[in-house]
Amino acid sequence: MKEEIKEAIEIPEGIEFKLEGNKIIAKAGDKTIIRKIGLQNFTVKVEGNKIILHSKKATRSESKIMYTTKAHINNMINGLVNDFEYKLEVAYSHFPVSIELDNSNHKLIVKNFLGERKNRVAKLLPEADVSIKGNIITIKSHNKETAGQTAANIEKATQIKNRDRRKFQDGIYITEKPGREI
Fold it and tell me: How wide is the angle at C-alpha 131 spanned by C-alphas 127 and 137, nearest 5°?
């Protein structure tokens, strides 16, 4: 069944939104987030201090896409107001692991993981701010996708294969995500 849906999102003061084709550009101070959206049977308009998503005849799948777009816009607003923060913890029991941050090449280097001579390298995205304090790695970014992908890259770099996971629990694991703890 097709239905008319109209959703409005309040824009806080200090945040500026622009629409250019299928891109939404959000700015607040020196922070900028650009996001492509798929406009399938719904329109996005910026009127005053509101973003309006409107569809005259939305099917179930089209309304899902519209509400997902609304969630992405809310994440953009939340990121420009407060940074998203991920925390990861380095865990090891067999060999002491050391980690280095290479900001010039946007890489995190994991040394002596499981006694391996070759270093493991995780790619850091340029917009993410990574800091290391002891065994805790903190990632902050105004873009939720950038922070999450950087955390996933670090966790994936220490993935263990061909060993018993019950015995070898070494690795770097996400312990906190924005809005919830794990």
Answer: 110
Within 10 angstroms of residue 36's Cβ, the number of other Cβ atoms is 9
Q: pTM for the whole thing?
A: 0.86
Which of these three, 81, 105, 123, is where a domain ends?
A: 81
Looking up residue 65, the CATH number of its domain turns out to be 3.90.930.12
pLDDT tens digits, 46-80: 888 888 888 888 788 888 888 888 999 999 999 99
Chain segment 6-50, per-residue pLDDT in tens: 888 888 888 888 888 888 889 988 889 998 887 777 888 888 888
Specify the number of domains making up the chain. 2
Higher pLDDT, 138 or 178: 138
